[in-house]
Amino acid sequence: INIGYISNLTDTDSLQAAGSTAGTVDDYVAGASLSASFTSGNIKLIAEHIMAMDDFIAGDFGGDITADTSPSASNVEVNVSLDGDVTLAVGFQQTRDSLLLELPETAILAAVSMPLIDGINMAVEYAKASDYDTDDGGTDENASQLTLQLSTEF
Question: What are phi and psi of 11, to 5 degrees?
């Protein structure tokens, strides 16, 4: 189990990358994180949650925030290791009040990874993300993404 604290969420890379007005807030907003993992045999469960401990207020970030908001994000993932170093994974992610970060409201993911040859691995991941409703400032659209990754160890 891991527990984390940051005294000012605007110091995070994600909020710094949100635009030229990043970090423009009236008061610092602290954040907290909690993560845990559990392994039993060839199955691993991972759970993570990060959240603002107070609200960003309307007008913060150069007016990009139009109502008081307290962003959070959660991730739950299950990995199963099979023979031959093949790993299957499924995950679910959910955010709240995270439009400024351009994160989807929910995402479902599935992946498989395996060695191709000695020292070279391949992973394929499919993700389906759903944006926030238009009433909440989102697009109410869905997006799918397929990622192929080759990696090497040296």
Answer: -80, -5
Supply the pTM of this predicted model.
Answer: 0.81
User: What DSSP letter does each residue of 85-132 carry, written as one string?
Assistant: G-EEEEEEEEEES-GGGT--SEEEEEEEEEEEETTEEEEEEEEEEEPP
Tokens 């080759």 sit on residue: 150
Tell me the C-alpha distance between 53 and 9, whole Å.
10
Of 72, 74, 69, 44, nearest in space to 58 by CA: 69
CA angle 24, 48, 134 (to 5 degrees): 55
- pLDDT band at residue 19 using 50, 70 and 90 as cut-offs: low
Residue 89 has pLDDT above 50, yes or no: yes
Rounded to whole angstroms, the Cα distance separating 57 from 26 reads 8
Q: What is the rounded distance in angstroms from the CA atom of residue 21 to the CA atom of residue 84?
A: 49
How far is Cα of residue 2 from the mean position of the Cα atoms in its chain?
16
Q: List, in sequence order, every residue forming a beta bridge with 91; answer none if it has no partner.
A: 77, 109
What confidence tens digit (pLDDT) does each residue in 30-54 have? 899 999 999 999 999 999 999 989 8
Residues paired with residue 79 on neighbouring β-strands, in sequence order: 44, 89
Average pLDDT over residues 76-87: 93
